[in-house]
Amino acid sequence: MKKQTIILAGLLLLAACNRTPRVHQIKNLGGTPYQEDTIRMTYARNPERALALLDSAILLGNIDPYHALLARATIYSRSPESRRLDQAETLCRSLLQHDSVVGVPQRQSAVLDLLIYTSNMKDDNEAYIRWASQKAELCREMGDEVEALRTRAEIGAAMAALGQRDEALALLDGVIRELDKPGSINRMDALSIAAKRKIYVLKQEGRQEEAASVARRVLARLDHYQKHPGAYAEDSYRLSWSKRPADRERYLDFTRGQAYANLAVAYAPRRRDSALFYLQKLSQTHYGQSLGARKLIVPAQMELGMYKEALATYAQVEKQMGADTLHSDYALLLRDRAIAAKALGRPEEAYGYMWRYAALTRELSDNLQACEAQEYAARYRAKEQELAIQSAQDKSRVRGIILLLIALLLIVDLAATVLFLWQKRELERKNCALAAQIADTLKYKEQLQLPEEPTDLFEQLRLAIKRDRLFLDPAFDRQKLTELFHLSNRQVGAAFSQGSEFCSLSDFIRDCRLEYSCRLLTEHPELSIKEVAAKSGFQYASTYSTDFKSKYTMTPSEFRKLQAGK
Predict the structure, then answer these.
(1) Is 112 exposed, middle or buried (0-12, 13-18, 19+ CB in 10 A)?
(2) pLDDT tens digit sequence for 213-267
(3) Contacts of 371 (CB under 8 A, 6+ apart)
(4) CB 536 within 8 Å of CB 514
(5) Beta bridge partners of 232
(6) For FRET with 436, which of 10, 21, 209, 462 sits at 20 to 30 Å CA-CA?
(7) What is the pLDDT of residues 31-58, one digit of tens each?
């Protein structure tokens, strides 16, 4: 199989390197589980090889994105490296948000199973409980109540590991009550798992008698099944791979044997006869001959003084461990072997085990302190990162506030600009109307026929000044008017202050000059403002502009612009 896989991969790579842009997949390979199955068979033996096969499958399009991500996460989850386990968790989290998973309960269940497994590998019980709770809820939504209860039993075990033993036992009791009834082999199997989880917690609490009652409950359910098999549907996932009666019997033998082992361990401290009885029952099962069964009953053998049997089991366990001995389980194994050797009258062997136990305990203590130091360092780094993130968030918040203020200022500035432009437009409109009104008023005054023989002194003077355009002379003043008409200053002053709307002669002269300048501004656009001022009788252009704006509320230039735009 490996040789065929390598040949097929080589052919596919050659096809990929061809200059023809179209990739031709090998017949019976694309769209089949061939490569995916190969990857799954390879990752346990050679994870790096499995990753290479996965990359090839992705490159050639022989695996869809969901199965590719799930396969990669599965490979990472089987690694002992914490970095790989973190990568597996990250991939699974992203998968839960993937379009191919959202809304597909079966795929969600597969991803959650992998997250549960990864959390267990990381000894992260809090994450385990979180993902398992989601899995239980999903199972209920899918209508698989038995799987939901099985998952809740695992949650109970994780809660006990976190020190929440009372809550864990209450949860396990509820699960066992729900499962302890006929219905299916699957339900019976879930009951045995929940029972084993409760027995473990009770042993940790030193409540062996209660553990024995739980094991007896499992035996009672197995007895009921054997007497009434028709009341149980054949749906156990453990038996789905085989229809042979021998396999079913092997499963029942395994479950019954574990119950016997748990009973022997539970009764060993206080009820020797009962413990020996169940050890005998265990030895009559096929499961009882396995190393797993003997590992399970070693505590009972030690309690009952069966030291030779215990030492034989420990020897097999040590052989099975190989080089994996740097952990507390192996230290306890050495301690128990020392106790057994001493009880058998083999002091040298006992001393050797105790010396190794003491040395390993010191090393484990040093490693524990190193791990704690690393954990503290990791927490410190995490705190630093948290503070850095908080600082970045604060800076981002400040930038946001600054940007908001800038935006508000821009809005205020824009509003002020719009208001200014609107006011300017309104002023121009009013000025335009005013300019038109001024022009019409001047035309009306020009067309107005003055009396040929005015009797009033003011009218006589006004007619002479306007007809002869005396006001165009910048030096024209009261003195010249008195000389011209042989009048006294008092008579001229009274004529303008009492006989007209003007306060003085100078006001009248200024008015005449401004009206004349309006004509020049309208009829002679070629003249500059300064020239218009001079031709209208003003000595200074600045005085002219000031007087013009005071009378008409606009400058000469604005008046000319408005007249030109009509």
Answers:
(1) buried
(2) 889 999 999 999 889 888 888 776 555 556 676 778 888 899 999 899 898 888 8
(3) none
(4) yes
(5) 183
(6) 462
(7) 444 455 666 556 656 677 777 777 777 7
